[in-house]
Amino acid sequence: YKFGRAQKLMQDVPIGPGTRVTLKFSLSLLEGELIDETPSATFDVGDGSLLPGFESAMFGMKAGESASHEIAAKHGFGEPNEDNVHKMKRINFNDLDLAEGLVVSFKDGEGNELPGVVKDIGEELVVVDFNHPLAGKDLLFDVEIFSVEQISDEIVRG
Q1: For a tag site, which of 2, 40, 76, 135 has the least CB within 10 Å?
Q2: What is the rounded CA–CA span in Å between residue 22 and residue 32?
């Protein structure tokens, strides 16, 4: 009896700060194109594994529940930022067979990889967009919650 009661309490834990969640999810464009799916993943709310907009969409859900959430661009990968579109000298790309849509990778000041998409190729300049490819896109987040575990009473602040 006691074990059964503990199990029931575990079932009743809602997703929120201080919880560890095991789930499966898929991410699609609103038009239906599948972007990503994960059959099983575990994360701690606030650990940075999921964007805050995806986490907050699940707040209050419990083990055994599933839902479809529309995530507005501003709560997903953000809106495109013109400051992330750069014109670079074509001579810097001599080794590459340039084509629009080509993903090129650069290193930022800290040595982190920074991918960009070639948007336009001119005689002298190449336009590279470093915005996330899903920036500006509203998304459909389908999620099924397998388990929710309370792991701390702390509220994680980002």
Answers
A1: 2
A2: 25
Each residue's pLDDT tens digit, 49-97: 999 999 999 999 999 999 999 999 999 999 999 999 999 999 988 778 8
State the Cα–Cα distance between residues 112 and 120, nearest whole angstrom: 24
By CB neighbour count within 10 A (0-12 exposed, 13-18 middle, 19+ buried), where does 146 fall? middle
For the record, the structure tokens of 85 come out as 């579109």
**Closest by Cα among 143, 152, 150 to 15:** 150
Which of 70, 53, 14 is closest to 132 using CA atoms? 53
Alpha helices in the chain, H assignment, sequence order: 2-11, 52-58
- CB 84, CB 131: distance < 8 Å: yes
Instruction: Pick the closest to residue 55 from 68, 46, 64, 66 (CA basis).
Output: 46
Whole-structure pTM value: 0.75
* 115, 132 Cβ separation under 8 angstroms: no
